[in-house]
Design goal:
Layout (H helix, E strand, L loop, with lengths): L1 H19 L2 H10 L2 H11 L3 H17 L4 H13 L4 H16 L4 H13 L7 H17 L3 H14 L3 H8 L5 H13 L7 E2 L11 E2 L14 E7 L5 H10 L6 E7 L6 H6 L8 E5 L6 H11 L4 E4 L5 E2 L3 H11 L5 E9 L5 E2 L8 E3 L5 E3 H8 L9 H13 L4 E13 L19 H16 L31 E10 L8 H13 L4 E5 L13 H8 L3 E3 L5 E9 L14 E9 L7 H8 L2 E3 L1
Parallel strand pairs: 3-4, 3-6, 4-5, 8-12, 13-14, 13-16, 14-15, 16-17, 17-18
Antiparallel strand pairs: 1-2, 6-11, 7-12, 8-9, 8-10, 8-11
Length: 609
C-alpha cells in the first residue's frame, strides 16, 4: 500500500513537472545540467511509474546509441518490448526499435521497422504519435518500393490533421520534381512562407535551382545591420547558391563576410568574382586550414553588424529568413539570440530526418542570430575547434544570460541544409546521427564540465590556451593528420567514471605515470550495467584538462609501447565506439583469465604487434 501511495505521489510530481515547467526550462535543464545534477532532480521527482518507465527506455537507448552497445543495447530494448507487465513500456520500447531499424536505411531493417510499428496499439494515442508513426511507415514502404502504400499511409494521416512534416514526407514519395515542389510549398504555406520554384537552369541540380519570386524589401531594414558569416572550404560552385540566397534576402541591410579556409579548388575565385559588383560581400582567408570556427572567428574581427548569423557554404536560405529572425530580436530586447528552422534536403529535393523520429523540420543551430556587442563583450568568440562548437557557444550564452536568452523560433524551414555523402553531419565516425557519440560525446562531456566549474566563459581569439582539452581530431592544429597514428608510451583502458569501484586506485596509477614524464593516453570503456550517462571522474577530467593525459577516441588510431586493460569485465559486451590501438605489450590488471567473449571484444580494437 505504501509503495502504491509513493508511486502515486511520484507520478504527481512528474505530472507537475511535465505540465507546469515551461518547455524552454526543460530544454535548458536537459542540455546544461551535469548528469549528477540530473540524478538529483530525478530523485526529487521520485520514482513514479512514468519516471521509472522512461528511465528504463532512455538507459537502453543511451547504451544502444551513444555508447555503441549495439547488440546488448538492442537486446535490452527488445526485452523491454517483450515484457508483459507494463503495456505502456512495451509501446515506448517498440517505437524506439522501429526508429532504430528505420534509421539503418536498408531493405531488411525497413521490414523490421514496419513489423514493430504494426505491433503498436492504434487506439488512445495522440495525433503527434499517429503522425510520426505514419511518416516512419511511409519512409519504410518507400524504401521497399511500395510507393502507393506509402502515399495511402500519409493520406490517412492527413485526414487527421495537416502538418508540414507530412507534406515533406509526401514530397519524398513523388517522382515529378514539379509535384515535389507543390508538396513543399504546402508545408511552407502553413508558416506563411512565400512559395519556391525552380529557375530551370538544367546545368544545376534541383537544389541549386531553388528560388522565389521577387519579394518586396523589408521596410524596417534600416533599423539594424546583420552580418552574415559564410565559412567556406572546397565548396566549389555550390558556394554561389549560399551567397545568392543571402544577397536576395528581403532584409537588405546586411554585410556578407566570406572566409575561405585554404580551399584547394576554385572556391576563392568564385567568391572574389562578387567583390566588384556587390559591395556588401567581403572576403578573407585563414592563414592555414583550421576549420570553420577559426574562419568564423576571423570574420568576427571584421564584423560591423548589430546582429551576427551564419550561413553554411553550400546551403540555400529562403529570402524571408533573416527578416523573420531579426524582427523577433528587435521586438524582444532581453533575448540575446534566436534560431530559425531547417529541413535537410538532397540535391533532388528529397528530405532526410537525420535520426529525428518522424520529423523533417527542426531547429537550425547554424542559423543562430545573436546581438554582436552584448554577446561578444561577455563571451568572446566561438571555441576554435573543427566542428560541433555551435551548441557549445549557445550553451555559454544561456549560462551567462539565462535560459530565456536564446529562443528557438518555430517559424518553418527557412533553410534547406544540403544533405550529401560529404556532409560532416553524415560522417559515420565524427558525425552527428541525431545523438552524441565518440569524439562529439567526449567534447560535449568536457564542455559541460567546464561550463559548471569555470568562473569565466570568455574565449579569446586567437586561442593561445584552450579553456578545456578537446579531442585531437577536433583541434585546428591536430597532433597527427587524418588517418595517421598518434604515439604514446602508455595507454590505459578502463571505465573512468566514479561508479567504478577501482577509480581511486586508477587515478593514483595515472598520476604516478604522469609524474614519470610518460606520454599517457586513456581509452574510456564503459561498464554495461552502470548508469550509462554518468560522466568520467572529476579527477580524471582534471588530469585531461591539465594536459597530463590525453583521451584517445573512436575514429582515431594510436600506437603505444604498453597498453593496460584495467578491468577486462568491461569487455563482457561488445561496444563499437573504441579507437584502434596497436601495442608492443598488453597487460591485464585482473588476475582472472579472460573469457572467450572478452578476448574477442578486446582483439577487435586492441592489437598486439
Amino acid at each position: 500500500m505504501l509503495k502504491v501511495i509513493k508511486n502515486k505521489l511520484s507520478d504527481l510530481g512528474q505530472i507537475i513537472y511535465d505540465r507546469l515547467v515551461p518547455k524552454y526550462v526543460k530544454k535548458f535543464l536537459k542540455n546544461s545540467l551535469s548528469d549528477q545534477m540530473k540524478d538529483k532532480l530525478r530523485k526529487l521527482l521520485g520514482a513514479g511509474q512514468k519516471q521509472a518507465r522512461m528511465r528504463k527506455v532512455n538507459h537502453a537507448k543511451y547504451r544502444l546509441k551513444n555508447l555503441g552497445f549495439q547488440k546488448s543495447g538492442y537486446q535490452e530494448m527488445l526485452n523491454l518490448f517483450n515484457q508483459t507487465e507494463d503495456p505502456l513500456l512495451t509501446e515506448i520500447a517498440g517505437f524506439e526499435l522501429a526508429i532504430w531499424h528505420a534509421d539503418q536505411y536498408t531493405v531488411e531493417d525497413a521490414k523490421k521497422s514496419l513489423t514493430f510499428l504494426d505491433q503498436l496499439r492504434k487506439e488512445k494515442i495522440t495525433e503527434e504519435q499517429k503522425r510520426k508513426r505514419a511518416i516512419l511507415a511511409a519512409e519504410n514502404l518507400h524504401l521497399l518500393g511500395k510507393i502507393n502504400q506509402a502515399k495511402d499511409v500519409l493520406k490517412q494521416a492527413l485526414k487527421i490533421g495537416e502538418h508540414p512534416d507530412l507534406y515533406l514526407a509526401f514530397a519524398n514519395t513523388v517522382e515529378s520534381v514539379i509535384e515535389r515542389i507543390e508538396w513543399i510549398n504546402k508545408a511552407l504555406k502553413l508558416y506563411n512562407i512565400e512559395p519556391i520554384h525552380l529557375n530551370n537552369d538544367v546545368d544545376l541540380s534541383y537544389y541549386d535551382q531553388l528560388e522565389t519570386n521577387q519579394l518586396e524589401n523589408d521596410q524596417q531594414s534600416n533599423q539594424a545591420k546583420i552580418t552574415v558569416i559564410i565559412p567556406v572550404y572546397n565548396a566549389g560552385d555550390q558556394v554561389r547558391t549560399a551567397i545568392e540566397s543571402i544577397l536576395k534576402q528581403t532584409w537588405t541591410n546586411i554585410e556578407v563576410i566570406v572566409v575561405d579556409d585554404c580551399s584547394s579548388d576554385h572556391t576563392a575565385s568564385i567568391v572574389q568574382s562578387y567583390l566588384d559588383s556587390e559591395p556588401r560581400v567581403k572576403f578573407y582567408q585563414t592563414p592555414k586550414n583550421s576549420g570553420p570556427y577559426v574562419a568564423r572567428n576571423i570574420a568576427l574581427q571584421h564584423a560591423t553588424g548589430d546582429f551576427i548569423t551564419i550561413n553554411d557554404a553550400d546551403d540555400w536560405s529562403h529570402p524571408q529568413k533573416l527578416a523573420r529572425q531579426v524582427r523577433h530580436l528587435l521586438k524582444n530586447k532581453k533575448v540575446m539570440g534566436n534560431t530559425s528552422e531547417q529541413a535537410r534536403a538532397t540535391e533532388e529535393l528529397s528530405f532526410y530526418r537525420r535520426g529525428k523520429p518522424g520529423q523533417y523540420i527542426f531547429s537550425n543551430m547554424s542559423s543562430f542570430m545573436f546581438r554582436r556587442k552584448e554577446v561578444l563583450d561577455k563571451l568572446g568568440h566561438w571555441d576554435s575547434v573543427r566542428f560541433a562548437a555551435d551548441s557549445e557557444f549557445i550553451m555559454r550564452i544561456k549560462h551567462i544570460f539565462g535560459p530565456k536568452a536564446v529562443v528557438e523560433l518555430p517559424i518553418g524551414p527557412l533553410s534547406f541544409q544540403r544533405q550529401s555523402a560529404d556532409s560532416l553531419t553524415g560522417n559515420s565516425v565524427f558525425g552527428f546521427p541525431g545523438y552524441f557519440m565518440g569524439v562529439r560525446k567526449e567534447y560535449r562531456d568536457a564542455q559541460l564540465d567546464y561550463h559548471h566549474t569555470a568562473s569565466n566563459l570568455y574565449y579569446d581569439y586567437p586561442q593561445s590556451n584552450r579553456p578545456f582539452k578537446a579531442p585531437n581530431p577536433m583541434l585546428p592544429e591536430r597532433e597527427v593528420s587524418k588517418g595517421e597514428f598518434r604515439t604514446f608510451n602508455i595507454i590505459y583502458s578502463a571505465d573512468f567514471r566514479e561508479a567504478n569501484q577501482n577509480i581511486s586506485d586508477i587515478i593514483r596509477k595515472l598520476t604516478a605515470l604522469t609524474n614519470k614524464k610518460q606520454k599517457v593516453g586513456i581509452v574510456q570503456v564503459y561498464q554495461y550495467d552502470e548508469t550509462p550517462d554518468l560522466p568520467i571522474s572529476a579527477e580524471v577530467r582534471q588530469l585531461i584538462n591539465d594536459r597530463k593525459i590525453s583521451v584517445v577516441c573512436y575514429g582515431e588510431k594510436a600506437r603505444t609501447e604498453l597498453l593496460v586493460v584495467d578491468t577486462p569485465d568491461v569487455f563482457d559486451h561488445e561496444q563499437l565506439y573504441l579507437p584502434e590501438i596497436y601495442t608492443k605489450k598488453l597487460n591485464f590488471e585482473s588476475s582472472r583469465d579472460l573469457t572467450n567473449r572478452q578476448q574477442k571484444n578486446i582483439e577487435q580494437f586492441f592489437i598486439q604487434e
